Every structure is written in structure tokens, then in C-alpha cells.
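Technical note accompanying the year-one report. For the benefit of new consortium partners, we illustrate the data format agreed upon in the data management plan: each record pairs a sequence with a C-alpha cell string. No post-processing was applied to the example shown here.
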Amino acid sequence: MARPEGLPRVLVCTGKGGVGKTTTAAALGIDAAREGARTLVMSTDGAHSLGDALAVDLHSGPVLVEERLTAEHVSAAHGLSDAWRVVQDYLLGLLGDVGIDPAVAEELTSLPGADEIAALVTLRERVRADEWDVVIVDCAPTAETLRLLALPDSLSWHLRRWLPQGSTWRPAAAAALGVPMPGPAVLEAITRWHDQMTDLKGVLRAPGSTIRLVTTPEKVVTAEARRTWTSLSLFGFTVDAVHVNRIFPTGPDWLSGWNRAQAEGLEEVHRSFTGIPIVAMPYLPEEPIGPDALARLAISCAEVRLTRDRPVGAASTAPLTVTETAQGYTLSVLVPFVAAADVSLGRRGDDLLIDVAGQHRVVTLPAALAPLTVDGAGVRDGRLVVTFARDDRVIA
């Protein structure tokens, strides 16, 4: 399964808590492995359910579940403490110089989001290890997933502000505040993290990396899935399928009322996610635990099987595109279910600041757009379209 830059097929499964995303991720992993792909399923969810679904113990590290399938749970900031300590010591020195109590300074300089960063670093290591054809990430519920996936953008943006500008090795913050210049070890650590986060941004947005939304045929759950699609699209991620779990079998008995309600729910899902494959996952007679049971569940996923030789992500739903026009350029961002009133834009140097319904994204503009002026913006057919003029005209 050749992928761009030799990368494996990367799939992130997310959804509202309790919709069966872990079971779905495990089933897709079993299916990919039995189709011949070297497959890793890794979980970043603190609930530790992946091991339960696969009937294996993941507390002691990665486990070979069966031939070609490995499972792993990432829950601690392994390997981060030493790298962060170099930066923390520098920050502690600064706070000590201005009289901050050492205990307070220690708390203030503790690494924020350590578990999330550990998960990202581990994901990057696994993807770059050249050991897997498919890497499936079973994420925590939706809100945590959005924070996790947005973290590489945020971290790389902030770390870039610490890096040297031009030929000088004095960070902008040190120059502005008159604080001592960080030593080579600090700059090396920041540079290394910046490079890792920049690389991970490319990995997560590569043509072989996509998101699977997992939901159930209920209005409240489908509404959250729609909001998640909007947020994921804003950050440039491609949703290539929606898995709808717990579909009851049809029958004339007392389930008929549930059948009607689920049929209406499925219609709502199809209306909401036009253009994306919808996978109806059946409600099995018993809980799918263990590889064989998960393989039976995965039969319903044949249309979106990870080892199928098919395009990943329809071009019509490309999250972010740049098109040259006679007047300049047009930048288009997929923002499904969003009205123009929900969007606000800002500009800071080469960065375009986008706020959509409370979600914030910083888009560092390509070289062709960075020197141009924002000439207008609007929402058309579910996309935020920003035009850039070749001159300094500003149209209100």
C-alpha cells in the first residue's frame, strides 16, 4: 500500500463518548490486518477500552494481538520530561530573577498538555518508523480529539516565536523583554519540538491521513457529529466516512418502533453528510469482544476498507484549497453547516486568523498569498472563501 512519502495509511476515529468508536477502530484494525496490512491500533483515550475490546492487556506496552496486528495504549508523557526539563530550568531561572516563589514557579512551568503531546510524539514516531501499512488512532471523545489534533498547529506557531529570526540567535521574546538569552540546549530543544510538530502537521494532513466520524442514529449524537465535521474541516482534516453504530435488525416485534426511529435517524445522517460514505454498523446479538467478533462486525465496513485501492477523501470535500485567479488568489476552507455570521477573520503578518463558532485556527499563508491583501470573504456552499488581491486595495 504505497502512500505519499512512503507514509502508512493513517486513520483517526472519533465521536461522542459511548458511540462505539473504540469498537469501530478495533474492528477496522482487525479487518486491515486480515487483509494483509501490517496494522497498528493505538489509543489515546484515558478510558483504556481498546484492550478490553481486543481482549488483551495493554497496560505493559504494545501487544501483538494476532498476525500483522499490534495494539498500543499511550497514556503517559514518556520521554518528554527530560526534554522539557532543559526548557523548564531556563524558565525557572527567569521567574526566580523576578522574585517568584520556587514552588509557584515549578507549578507555572510544568508542561501543559503533557499526555496529549506524548500521544502526538508517539504517533509521529510510529508513522515514521516504516513498520506499518496502516495506523489507526482510537481517540478520546470529541472535545479531547479536537484539542489533540489542533495541538500541532498551536505548538508549532508558539515555538516558532522562540526560534531565531534571520541571522541572530536572540529570540524575539528575549529581545523585547530584555531577559537573558536561552542557551544552545534550550534553543536545540525548542527547534527539535518545532520540527516534530511541523512534520506531524504534514503527516496528519497527508493524502493518506483521514478521520472517521463514529455516531449512532440519534438526533443529539448526529448534531454533535455535524459540529465535529465543521471543526475538523476548519483545521484542514479530511473526513472520509461516517460509521453509524448499533443499527437494530428489522422485525415485526416490539423493535418496530425503534426501527422507525433509527430509520429516521439514518435519514438525518445521510442528509447531514452528503458526499461522504455512510457505514451502517449492525447491533450484534452480543457484545463484540475479541478479534473474531470484531472481524464479523467489520464485514459491514467493506465499502470503506482501509486496504482497498481507492482514492482517500473526495476532491469535492478537500478541507483547504488555494486557486489562482486573474485578480490574485482564492483560499477556500471547508466549513460545513456554518453561516457567514458565524465566521470572523483577522490578519497578523503572514498568518490568517479564522474563528468559526468558537473554534480558532491560525493558517500560515503560502508564500504566494502572504504579501497580498485580503480583498473579501464569504461563505458559499459550505466553504469559507477568502480572496486575495495582487495590489493594496482593501474592499470593505
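Partners are asked to follow this layout when depositing records. The chain has eleven helices and 15 strands.
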